[in-house]
Each structure stands twice: as structure tokens, then as C-alpha cells.
Amino acid sequence: MKKAIYPGSFDPITFGHLDIIKRASNIFDELTILVLTNVRKTPLFSADERVKILEEVTKDMPNVKVGCFDGLLVDYAKKNDVHVVIRGLRAITDFEYELQTAQTNRLLSQGSLDTMFLTTSLEYAYLSSTTVKEIASFGGDISKCVPDFVAQMIFTKYGVVKNEQ
Ligand code: ADP
Predict the structure, then answer these.
(1) Pick the catalytic residue: 50, 87, 90, 133?
(2) Which spans in the chain are helix H?
(3) CATH number for region 3-126
(4) Do residues 113 and 143 lie in contact, with contact meaning Cβ atoms separated by under 8 Å?
(5) Domain range annotation of the chain
(6) How would you write the pLDDT of the chain (165 residues) with one tens digit per residue?
(7) Out of 2, 41, 79, 144, which one is annotated catalytic?
(8) Does pTM top 0.85 for this prediction?
(9) In the chain, at which end, N or C, are there fewer CB atoms within 10 A of the end residue's CB?
């Protein structure tokens, strides 16, 4: 069985992430989306909330699972016998960090964990969780960025009252 993991903060999931999830789940027999605790970021949503959101948006994708992990990715991969990491690439600005992480994972796993990059669909090339949160914090329209119920949850976090969303 061909298995892969798609790790990230997903704080919150955007249509850009969802696009990568759909495409990766068509390539692999089983895809696990892994919510990681990123020490460099202070999340808007707790890990539990992010897992629940991901479970909801992927409920119609039978070969997609959702998990949560706060250790080294290589340890998770070894324990679960996974050898492929999926990451999305939007622009050249993503590249340096992604390359470094991919090389580090290969090194730490003694070559058993490879990273496969899927390039963003052009309509989502501009989309990031950070941008979504920034727009939402000012009460802007994020309906083209995230599913409706996620938009509602983000506005609630920021105390923004939106009746039309
Ligand atoms: P991290 O904090 O690990 O960077 P993110 O949740 O921001 O996690 O992103 C997870 C993965 O999804 C990363 O590989 C990122 O490049 C990718 N990604 C984020 N937004 C998009 C998008 N709009 N299109 C394609 N890939 C994306």
C-alpha cells in the first residue's frame, strides 16, 4: 500500500491545502494529514480544533486520515511505516525552507523519508493561512479562501460579527 503524510500547521486549512490534499489522495492509497505543533508559530486554532476542521472537510475522502503529532516527523514516519512526505510549493519563496526541511528529513531518516512536492494550482498561488487570518481579523471577505464553516470559526475567534458569511 502506497502511503504518504501531509504535515503542516493548517491554521486554518485553506482551499490551497484542500487542493493539495485532493491531488495527493489521488496518487496515494492512503494519505494522512498531520497537524504539527510548529514552535515558530502561535496558532489561532488549537491542535484539537484543527484536527476536527480537517476531519470535517475530508469526511468524503475515504483514503484520507487526520492525525496530530508534536515530535519529529521522521519519528512519526518510522513508527507508521511511511516513506513519503507531501508538501505544497507556491512560489520560489517557499523553496528555500522546503528544500532545507526535505534534506533534513532525508538525513535524519537515513534516506528512508522522501519529500514529494506538488505545485500549487494557480488560483491558489496567493493563498496562505496567514493572509486569510489577516483579512478576517479586519472583517474582510474570505469566502474564496476557506470553506464557509471555517470562515465562520475564524470570525468567531476574532470577535467579528458577519451575518452574510
Ligand atoms: P507549515 O506551517 O508547515 O508551513 P502550512 O499549514 O502553512 O504549514 O502549509 C502546509 C503545506 O501546505 C506547506 O507545504 C505549504 O507550502 C503548503 N501550502 C500552503 N498553502 C498552499 C497553497 N495555497 N497552495 C499550495 N500549497 C500550499
Answers:
(1) 90
(2) 15-27, 47-57, 73-79, 92-108, 129-137, 148-158
(3) 3.40.50.620
(4) no
(5) 3-126
(6) 999 999 999 999 999 999 999 999 999 999 999 999 877 778 999 999 999 999 999 999 999 999 999 999 999 999 999 999 999 999 888 899 999 999 999 999 999 999 999 999 999 999 999 999 999 999 999 999 999 999 999 999 999 887 654
(7) 41
(8) yes
(9) N
For residue 41, indicate whether it is catalytic.
Answer: yes
Q: Are 83 and 73 in contact (CB under 8 A)?
A: no
Q: Using the 8-state DSSP alphabet, how is residue 45 labeled?
A: S
Cell numbers standing for residue 9: 500547521
Q: In the structure grid, which three cell numbers stand for residue 92, read together?
A: 520560489
What is the C-alpha to C-alpha distance for residues 137 and 154, in angstroms, rounded to an integer? 8
CA nearest ligand 1 atom 2, residue: 9
- Residue in 9, 25, 129, 133 annotated catalytic: 129
Mutate to test the pocket of ligand 1, among 93, 120, 129 (most ligand atoms within 8 A of CB): 120
Q: How far is CA 163 from CA 144, 148, 156, 158, 160, in A?
A: 17, 12, 12, 14, 10
